[in-house]
Amino acid sequence: MVTVYDIAKAADVSYSTATRVLNGKADYVRPTFIKRAERIRKIALKMGYRPNAAARATSSGRFNAIGVVVRRRDKIGFGPHPSYIRGINRVLDDAGNNLVMAPVDPQAVTDEQAPRILQESMVDGLIIGDDDLLGEQAHATLEGLHIPSIWINTKRDQNAVYPDEFGGSQVLTKHLLELGHRRIAFCGSPSSDHYSSTDRAAGYTAAMRDAGLTPHPLVWANKPRERLARIEAAMATDDRPTAWLAIDAAYEPVLIAAAKQGLAVPEDMSLLAMGHGQAMHSCHVDTYEIPCYWVGYHAAEMLFKRINDPDSADLPALPVAYDKYIPGDTLAQHVSG
Is the pTM above the cut of 0.90? Predict the structure, then answer.
């Protein structure tokens, strides 16, 4: 195995110089120093040098690795959404850290039994995802580890980063109001215990009432056919909505119901969605994208603050605003009369 001593000898430099360069701690400014550092790195690459992470952890007390704890799902894999991971990785790459994914069974996270990443010291901190679905026992166990942790996609007062679903739903509803719509209906995904379900409906309701309007139908249904039937019923009334605010995949039954009723989109009815965006983009639906990337990015930044200052107080939660609008072909100005 190639060592730093081998690299130093081949480059004809001291061991300490080779160590600083290969550890990325050589803050050289002079051109001659920069050139020497580049030569050392090229020699290391050519010789197949790989840093010894175990030795580095022993000397520094850091693993240069972050664990992402996610809930294991038997049928649909495990989360969080890939955009969260891209945001986390952006910060980790800049810091020279690695990402360790740890899908866990919520029933296994107890004081007596827990995944190895929780039992052993192998990461510098944790980002905990899909948290509201883990369960109270898992929450208590994770918090009792006294390891720097940040929760994502959960609404907590401290050490958490999550999408501002209330504010996002308000923004979308106001967008429709500014286009002249007054009869705006809300169609959500199947109801759950996750904060996003209630916050999205509450944001829509608040925006409607702020405009002096009565909220139109709030369509909730766990079964797809039941949800479609409720949407069709709302569209069949004399005061049918002129616009729909659809959450995640709810845009699909709205489009199906409109087609069955002979309504053209956006000529007869506008549609605005909030969600992850990929399928919506392919259908040219006007969409506000959930800020998953920035939630992951800010969560990683917040975690490094806690790691670098372990004695600091808990950090206030950060709700991340919806700010990415993807234009489509489903919105139109509404003129009453």
Answer: no
